[in-house]
Specification:
The chain folds into two domains: 370 residues, Up-down Bundle (Butyryl-CoA Dehydrogenase, subunit A, domain 3), CATH 1.20.140.10; 172 residues, Beta Barrel (Butyryl-CoA Dehydrogenase, subunit A, domain 2), CATH 2.40.110. The chain is built from 24 helices and eleven strands. α18 crosses α20.
Length: 663
């Protein structure tokens, strides 16, 4: 293909092996080959890519087209996937597999079936139930979703209103939605796609409330797809993004299901209605923790796509003059543009490293749970909460920054940046609203503080928070800066605990005191999360350093340093307040940061090329490998149905009479 000369020149400047960095991201050359093989197989399927951009279809047609493509995608993936892998192994090995985004700009109406329904079966069913339901779900004999959030309650799970009342006479649960606000609202794929659902409901048995429990509920007839008696469901309407996911609503009117439809791995209801409680109520939320782990990885991939588009466009777009009487420079030469974009490259790598680290923690805790050990579950939950928050909130900000960095052309849907933003930004509210999740992490951190004061053992990721270290002399190297961030988190925690205790001492209840100090508490959790991400990113690069060539190792170390320095400059207020950093240190860090932008600049296109996104996956007129930006923008414009005829019918119907005064 003919490649834009500016992109050719950028690639010639790159001083590291792009393929080696790609293999590093994929965790091995074999994994890169496997990913490419899957992409080739999927994208060669006839009809799987849209000939007419989906944004020109009606809302109904977009959904029906997405169903058609979902079937094609599932069939081809089923043919080529390793049948020996477990479901969890498949998820982990697919961390860098993004081919589905070539098929769906707005995600698939099968997405929650794969990401939540099957994991719920794996994590919540007992052995007998799993043997029955798992093959059906994996073979798509049934299609399911996960219904927890309601119209009136989301992150506050204890407030859910849907009830499941056990009838020992018939050995059935009676599902009921007592109010409009108790209708399930938001579950992906629920509207018209699925016929089964894992429903979270308030269990009542023998007149007693037994907490939130999961139930397997058939929603539609397996032959006709008609809703069953006592079930009302539909689709919730147009959203900012994810409009092919088919989010739905669900209400019950005295709908009965058999006793064995309660998922009974962790808690059980016996035939006579006796309730046997779970050893830990948090076990019911295992599916949510799993999804939060996946969100961190997904944010890394989505951000990588956005910054690939923005960096390539910035290498091609020329604008203004740095020096009089000289040609317009590439906008990537402006330091402000580098400041906008290079942190997105570093952040995608940081989130990827954090996702791997978090997955290993999740896998370890899962194995412990299988042995009945619950010791590390709370720590996993608190870490997953704050990492989900930081990755989703930072990704949303940086994807939008990538769009703005592309000027007016970034506003075009053909850039794909608005769609990527529409996919990323809802992650700040789904699977736990971000502020609420930060407060959940804060509860764990405050608990650790109190445990430490009693001489009790504190979870490994929280130990640094309770160590009574004197103020150290500031050290401007990476380890010293990360240590400075640890001190910030520790001192913020001490201050927040002090505020809570002060409010309690003034006569407020514990809950009121917590609310009054909540702004400080979420700041503690964010600071803690940033410490974890910085530490995981640096540790991952150090762990793999010996297997990398010097140039690739150098560029990864530059990204680690950029990530740390960027957030140092962003959080100067905290560092000046809680550490020994001086004005001289700040000036040095600012200079190092600017020098680092200059060092990374020649490798910018190489860094985004290393993500190895095919043009079909980027779906962008601005970000294609060949750099034919202006040609592609015009090609996409000509696909508009309004360009199918030189004179639109509205001229004769409305404009001409109006312009001639014949209203």
């Amino acid at each position: 293909m003919k490649v834009n000369v500016d992109l050719e020149n950028e690639r010639a400047k790159c001083d590291f092996n792009v393929e080696e960095l790609t293999n590093y991201l994929d965790e091995g050359a074999d994994e890169t080959r496997n990913r490419k093989y899957i992409e080739n197989k999927v994208l060669s399927v006839e009809g799987i890519l849209d000939k007419v951009p989906e944004e020109y279809l009606s809302y109904k047609d977009r959904y029906e087209n997405a169903i058609r493509k979902s079937v094609l995608l599932f069939k081809v993936l089923r043919e080529i996937q390793d049948s020996k892998q477990t479901q969890m192994e498949k998820v982990r090995s697919s961390f860098r597999h993004t081919v589905q985004t070539a098929v769906f700009k707005d995600n698939s109406p099968f997405s929650v079936h794969l990401s939540m329904f099957i994991p719920a079966i794996l994590g919540q069913c007992n052995d007998v139930q799993r043997e029955y339901w798992l093959p059906k779900a994996q073979n798509m004999e049934i299609i399911g979703t996960y219904a927890q959030t309601e119209l009136g309650h989301g992150t506050f799970i204890r407030g859910l209103e849907t009830t499941a009342t056990y009838d020992p006479v018939t050995e059935e649960f009676i599902l009921h939605s007592p109010t409009l606000t108790s209708y399930k609202w938001w579950p992906g794929n629920l509207g018209h796609t699925v016929n089964y659902c894992v429903v979270m409901a308030q269990l009542y048995s023998n007149g007693k409330h037994c907490g939130i429990q999961p139930f397997m509920v058939q929603l539609r007839d397996e032959e006709t797809h008609e809703p069953l008696k006592g079930i009302k469901l539909g689709e919730i309407g147009v959203k900012l993004g994810l409009n092919t996911v088919n989010n739905g609503f669900l209400g019950f009117h005295q709908h009965r299901i058999p006793r064995d439809r309660m998922l009974m791995k962790n808690a059980q209801v016996l035939r006579d209605g006796t309730f046997i409680a779970s050893p830990n109520s948090k076990l019911t939320y295992g599916t949510m923790v799993f999804v939060r782990v996946c969100i961190v990885n997904n944010m890394a991939n989505q951000l990588a796509k956005a910054v690939t588009i923005a960096v390539r466009y910035s290498a091609i777009r020329r604008q203004s003059q740095l020096k009089p009487h000289e040609p317009e420079p590439q906008i990537l030469d402006y330091v402000t543009q580098q400041h906008k974009l290079f942190i997105a490259i570093a952040s995608s790598h940081a989130f990827s490293s954090a996702a791997k680290w978090l997955w290993n923690m999740f896998d370890k805790v899962n194995k412990e749970l299988a042995q009945g050990k619950l010791d590390n579950l709370a720590e996993l939950h608190s870490v997953a909460c704050c990492l989900k928050v930081i990755s989703s909130s930072d990704a949303a900000v940086m994807v939008e920054r990538c769009r703005l960095a592309c000027g007016g052309h970034g506003y075009m849907l053909s850039s794909n940046l608005p769609q990527i933003y529409g996919v990323v930004t809802p992650a700040s509210t789904y699977e736990g609203e971000n502020t609420v999740l930060l407060l959940q992490t804060a509860r764990a951190l405050v608990k650790a503080w109190k445990q430490s004061s009693k001489g009790e053992v504190v979870a490994p990721t929280m130990k640094y928070l309770v160590e009574k270290k004197p103020l150290q002399k500031w050290n401007n190297d990476i380890d010293g800066i990360i240590e400075g961030f640890r001190r910030v988190a520790a001192r913020k925690l001490a201050a927040a605990v002090g505020s809570v205790e002060k409010h309690v001492g003034a006569g407020f209840s514990q809950e009121e005191a917590w609310n009054k100090a909540s702004v400080q508490l979420i700041a503690v959790s964010e600071a803690h999360g940033r410490v974890i991400i910085m530490s995981a990113f640096k540790a991952e690069v150090e762990r793999t350093a010996s297997s990398l060539s010097a140039p690739v190792r150098r560029v990864l170390e530059q990204l680690v340093e950029l990530y740390v320095l960027y957030w140092t400059l962003e959080k100067l207020g905290d560092l000046l307040l809680f550490t020994g950093i001086s004005e001289t240190d700040v000036h040095e860090i600012q200079q190092r940061y600017e020098d680092l932008l200059e060092k990374i600049r020649p490798n910018a296109v190489g860094l985004v090329d290393a993500y190895d996104f095919r043009d079909e996956i980027l779906n962008s007129a601005l970000g294609s490998y060949d750099g034919r930006v202006y040609e592609r923008l015009m090609e996409e414009a000509l696909k508009s149905p309004l360009n199918a005829q030189p004179v639109n019918d509205s001229f004769h119907k409305y404009l001409k009479p109006f312009m001639q005064g014949k209203l």
